[in-house]
Amino acid sequence: MAEAYIVGAVRTPVGKKKGGLSTVHPTDLAAHTLKALIERTGVDPAAVDDVIMGCVMQFGPQSMDIARNAWLSAGLPETVAGVTIDRQCGSSQQSIHFAAQGVMSGTQDLVVAAGVESMSIVPMGSSISAAFEKGMPLPFGEGWAARYGKQEISQFRGAELMCEKWGFTREELEQYAYESHQRAAKAIANGYFRDQIAPIAGVEDDEGPRPDTTLEKMAALKTLKEDGKITAATSSQISDGSGAVLIASEAAVKAHGLTPRARIVTLALMGDDPVYMLTAPIPATRKAFERSGLSIDDIDVIEINEAFAPVPLAWMKEIGADHARTNPNGGAIALGHPLGGTGAILMTKLLHELERTGGRYGLQTMCEGGGQANVTIIERL
Fold it and tell me: Tell me, what's a Pfam family for it (predicted)?
């Protein structure tokens, strides 16, 4: 099978809700990242075979195939097609998988894998709310109800169920969240993200981290559920942002004079209990290790999306991962989670951290709606 290489990765800063990016149209937000990717890699944009973009709320300003619209908004060639995909929070990590698979199959040579979400402009749940207002049924039909019953299906309930299953205390969750903010603040202060970010709308740094937060402040917050353990402090932030990665074949590397920065080692995908919803990174990671022949001891840098604090805590416990190598520069609790954009943003962070530290292998995984997870292992070159 042909190799797939990462030759470029860039992202916007992640803006907080109603922050510096909140008035940027999502198509323009994505277009900015696409343009920066092409400029930084120096590739001929007309040679790109496809633009695959993740976006969860494909509604209103994010509808009508935002991948195609963003490419055209960036002033890039009309001859290049674009497609928008939804695998919930893992949408743009799946974009990377599809791009790599196109190259590995030998049917494509240059593919852009990207993602975007403006949660300030298109709030989470917009499409469901609009359907509900028009009297349309919810996404779960009779077959679903027969299988799982009429029970609450939500990420918030899933996070609470994980706390119960793994026995996490509220204090443990808040200690983890505090560490995420401290790591993110340190990374920003030290300029770790500077080379990977394409500033936009006057915003140069991620807006989410709160370096002055304390455990006492977190303890004073109300839980999202009565008698629960999850609070806003131990949940990912509502955010705006975009990321883009360029995947190339060996032939494209030679033809366009590109520099391979990492090799795609393994792509894995698994589903798990959709009621728990957030646990699939655990079996998906085990599958990735089985396929690659690697183990957790081989992985130098890990990026697991911090949808809620129990997600990385349970994953580390089950996989035996070292917290020092897991989200070393903070995660979504501090840096934010712009849904469809997060997968490409995490890959950008992962690649740059491997390059900064000289690590060899990096692993990325995310929990996704429906009880799914992607895992990507890369090797720095």
Answer: Thiolase_N
**Closest of 256, 245, 243, 278 to residue 159, by C-alpha:** 278
Examine the residue annotation and report whether 163 is marked as an active-site residue of this protein: no
Tell whether 189 is covered by a domain: no
Total domains in the chain come to 1
User: Which residue segment(s) compose the domain that 61 sits in?
Assistant: 4-124+238-256
The two counts, helices (H) then strands (E), for the chain are 13, 10
Q: Catalytic one among 32, 55, 89, 352?
A: 89
If 0-12 CB within 10 Å is exposed, 13-18 middle and 19+ buried, where does residue 247 land?
Answer: buried
291 lies in some domain: no
Question: Is 84 inside a domain boundary?
Answer: yes
CATH number of the domain residue 85 falls in = 3.40.47.10
Whether the predicted model's global pTM rises above the 0.90 cut: yes
Both structure tokens of 141: 């039909």
Chain segment 201-237, per-residue pLDDT in tens: 999 999 999 999 999 999 999 999 899 999 999 999 9
Catalytic residue among 97, 163, 181, 367: 367
Q: Is position 55 annotated as part of the catalytic site?
A: no
